[in-house]
């Protein structure tokens, strides 16, 4: 089991702990706002499990049925997470509606808020770790989990402030309004996560800055070739795929052309970890005079 999978297991454990703490806060106060916060934590646990399963699948090596590997499983996890977030938002809206129709006074709000703040602090610390590890390891599943937790932190802070206002003003219906606002925030987070994950599934190109780096490396390390054109890139989880056409002199030997390709593959893989490079060699008459000029 690698580091990312251990982190995903940790997310399940932290999610269960936070879920228990938040339901304790609800049990103490009877607040619909705190209940909405707890309901979102159920999704946190479910998505942490989905991320762990996706990482297990993504770590499998390429096989006959999946020659490009299984790394896109991480994007499926993020899509599942987005769907579950939408389901949680609908459940929260339902509780908000019932609280609006029949508002209830808060019980022991100070103790409940203190308990909720403990859960929020734990979530904030873990979310920071997840986003950092997800970005450094280019894991869509781990980063999506961390970003969702940050949304949960923002929601929790808003709930705590809102419940405190309810306690101070004694306007019980505000508790239901707070829950509805939490649902809207959750829906927005789910949409953002799903949109970015679908982009990965649709083979979006690598960021423009990284693509510029790729072009520069090809230009300065393809000595002996004429030009390179039709550069195409995509990402699948932590894997990056780069392909392009390399134009060489018509009288160049296959061995010499192969040496240039090997050199380009080495420098690209050194600059961008977990990269697969595919190069199509073409004779000089195929030059387009509009691609990458070889320095």
From TrEMBL:
InterPro entries: Cation_efflux, Cation_efflux_CTD, Cation_efflux_CTD_sf, Cation_efflux_TM, Cation_efflux_TMD_sf, CDF_Transporter. It is a multi-pass membrane protein. The chain crosses the membrane at residues 7-28, 34-55, 75-94, 106-129, 149-170. Keywords: Cell membrane, Membrane, Transmembrane, Transmembrane helix, Transport. It is found in: Cell membrane. PANTHER family: MITOCHONDRIAL METAL TRANSPORTER 1-RELATED. This is Protein p34. It comes from Lichenifustis flavocetrariae.
């Amino acid at each position: 089991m690698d580091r990312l999978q251990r982190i995903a297991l940790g997310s399940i454990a932290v999610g269960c702990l936070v879920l228990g703490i938040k339901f304790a806060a609800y049990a103490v106060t009877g607040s619909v706002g705190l209940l909405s916060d707890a309901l979102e934590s159920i999704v946190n646990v479910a998505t942490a499990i989905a991320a762990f399963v996706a990482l297990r699948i993504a770590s499998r090596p390429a096989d006959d049925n999946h020659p490009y590997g299984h790394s896109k499983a991480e994007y499926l996890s993020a899509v599942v997470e987005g769907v579950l977030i939408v389901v949680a938002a609908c459940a929260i809206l339902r509780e908000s509606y019932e609280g609006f129709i029949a508002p209830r006074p808060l019980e022991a709000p100070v103790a409940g808020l203190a308990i909720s703040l403990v859960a929020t602090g734990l979530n904030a610390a873990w979310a920071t770790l997840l986003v950092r590890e997800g970005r450094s390891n280019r894991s869509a599943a781990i980063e999506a989990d961390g970003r969702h937790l940050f949304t949960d932190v923002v929601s929790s802070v808003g709930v705590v402030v809102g419940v405190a206002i309810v306690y101070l003003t004694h306007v019980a219906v505000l508790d239901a309004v707070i829950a509805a606002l939490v649902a809207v925030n959750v829906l927005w987070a789910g949409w953002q996560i799903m949109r970015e994950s679908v982009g990965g599934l649709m083979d979006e190109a690598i960021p423009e800055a990284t693509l510029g780096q790729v072009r520069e490396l090809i230009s300065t390390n393809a000595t002996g070739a004429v030009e390179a054109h039709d550069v195409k890139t995509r990402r699948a989880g932590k894997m990056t795929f780069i392909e392009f056409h390399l134009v060489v002199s018509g009288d160049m030997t296959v061995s010499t052309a192969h040496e240039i390709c090997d050199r380009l593959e080495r420098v690209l893989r050194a600059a961008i970890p977990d990269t697969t490079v595919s190069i199509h060699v073409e004779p000089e008459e195929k030059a387009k005079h509009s691609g990458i000029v070889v320095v």
